[in-house]
Amino acid sequence: MPKFDVSKRDLERLVGKTFTVEEWEDLFLYAKCELDDVWEEDGEIYFKADSKDTNRPDLWSAEGIARQIRWALGFESGLPGYKVEDSGVTVYVDGKLKNIRPYGVYAIVEGLNLDEEALKQMINLQEKVALTFGRRRREVAIGIFDFDKVKPPIYYRAAEKSEKFVPLGFEEEMTLEEILEKHEKGREYGHLIKDKPYYPLLVDSEGKVLSMPPIINSEITGRVTPETRNVFIDVTGWDLNKVMLALNVVVTALAERGGKIKSVEVVYPDMDINELVSYLAPDVEDKLRTIEKLTDWLVIETPDLTPKSFKVELDYIKRLTGLELSDEEIKDLLERMMYDVKLVDGKANLLYPAFRDDIMHARDVLEDVLIAYGYNEIEPEEPKLAVQGRGDKFIEFEDAVRELMVGYGLQEVMTFNLTNRESQYGKMLLEPGEDRFSHPPAELVEIENPISPKWSALRVWLIPSLLDFLSQNTHEEYPQRIFEVGKATLIDESRETKTVSESKLAVALAHPRVTFTEAKEILESVMHHLGFRYELEGIDHPSFIPGRAGKIVVEGKPIGIIGEVHPAVLENWGIEMPVAAFEMFLRPLYRAPYL
After folding, report:
1. Domain containing 519 — which CATH number?
2. Residue 312 to residue 237: CA distance in whole angstroms
3. Counting runs of H as helices and runs of E as strands, what totals does the chain give?
4. What is the predicted pLDDT for the residue at 442?
């Protein structure tokens, strides 16, 4: 969970009221934080805040905590209002970055008056969002620059590795390759782009380098000081929704410091940057008019602070809280958590801020109601029924399988059940098929209104999840031998829910000399320990190398698949090592006496 330091004086300046340390301990709960430590330094009192929610990056800074507390105490109510003006600035994104680091979103915040504490919070938020929410800059990396040193328009382009600039903290120019080898941040994050044909570079119209995402800013433009009044914010990554959310978090935090938010036009072309520049007229106004004529380009305005919507049944909140709450009391509590609330026919029609992305179910709204009400105000009740619990035998069987796999020297991973069609089919060279044992089932269970395209369906098989894990750890040492005991969700029209959640075991082995035989040896040993005989029937499967894939058959029924992963699949995942894998259902192998 993210932890960060905040000044008591700075928090109180942002809230608009002073409190005792003891009062602050309770106030932090409104922002889903705990007061982890208190100390005094140079006459100033500091808190260490421990955030308890990895889905709320807007609460990972003094600005976010203070904002939430102002609303919770009733100083303000409903949706926060942030005005966004047009800056007239354009950023052009190079099409060559599509498979390198495709998305960049941008904003300008003007009129800042930053002291040292405000600078610390800005840097802390930038780092925490990129580290935790951004998965160590893989999904999100953030740059903040002195806008007065930048000459628009700006270009996010693919650069040759021999190009040079002065990285932050250095005095001399270095090539992009040298930065990855010699700069501290290059050594730490270089694996994210090192094997790419080009490196991302953010430059202005004069060719001045702003940054090398996701590695390091330029010394010339990337150093923000108390004298900086206007900043340019750059967020890059692989998921447009995710980078947009990170941008919203940063710009609204700076707006809490009195900054004025200005939008930036971002142009995504289907051509490289040189072609783009040759099409554009000399001055900015003519460039914007030219863009409007080119239908093959995607043009977006960032940031987008349009509120998000959700509906919840009031009876659901009353029933699950167990509190005697009227409709108006629920409305008041939600407004204190920054919702706009309209009560219609027993429902609350909600709008919530664009810097939040954690409202996926009615229980998320319910949690906000309880936070505003105050957990400490809820009277606990003893259970009225005496019950005796016992462990589920199949869960114990799954645990036994896990211990068995660890005994083979494999490392357990836990991946998400949520995925997307591209990961389950496209990257695996598959079209949905009818035979679940040679292909995944005909259709995924897809989410009607997904928060993100990346999490738009429930998986039907686990091997893609293991390949995703391997793709994010290509910089780690080999061999990598991993397994997962997890759930796959299959369509079953005979059930009330039309789906069934099945337990599966999946194994993936990655190293230079891995073969089908190595995976088969582990499979053989697993079957022996579980007391089952099995057969392998050769199959042609697009995800595996022809002639090196088989169907796992037990008691005449197919229960899984094994093979060497096809090189084209590995390329789709960005994996350079050979991989052998197998996957099978566990329910057919369950025998209670085994335990």
Report:
1. 3.30.930.10
2. 33
3. 17, 28
4. 56
* Phi, psi of 579, rounded to the nearest 5 degrees: -135, 130
Ramachandran class of 135: left when φ > 0, alpha when ψ lies in -120 to 50, beta otherwise: left
Which residues participate in the annotated binding site? 358, 364, 367-368
Indicate whether 43 and 9 sit together in one domain.
yes
Which neighbouring-strand residues pair with 174?
165
* Domain stop point among 271, 302, 333: 302
Q: Could you list the residues known to form a binding site for Mg(2+), using ranges.
A: 358, 364, 367-368
Treating both helix axes as pointing N-terminal to C-terminal, what angle do 116-128 and 240-255 enclose, rounded to 10 degrees? 170
pLDDT digits (tens, 9 = 90+) for 325-359: 999 999 999 999 999 999 999 999 999 999 998 99
Residue-number span of the structural domain to which 428 is assigned: 393-589
Look at the pTM and tell me if it is higher than 0.90: no
Burial class (CB in 10 A: 0-12, 13-18, 19+), 55: middle
72-110: per-residue pLDDT in tens?
999 998 899 999 999 999 999 998 998 899 999 999 999
89 with 64, same domain: the answer is: no
Write the secondary structure of 100-136 as one string of H (helix), E (strand) and C (coil): CCCEEEEEEEECCCCCHHHHHHHHHHHHHHHHHHCCC
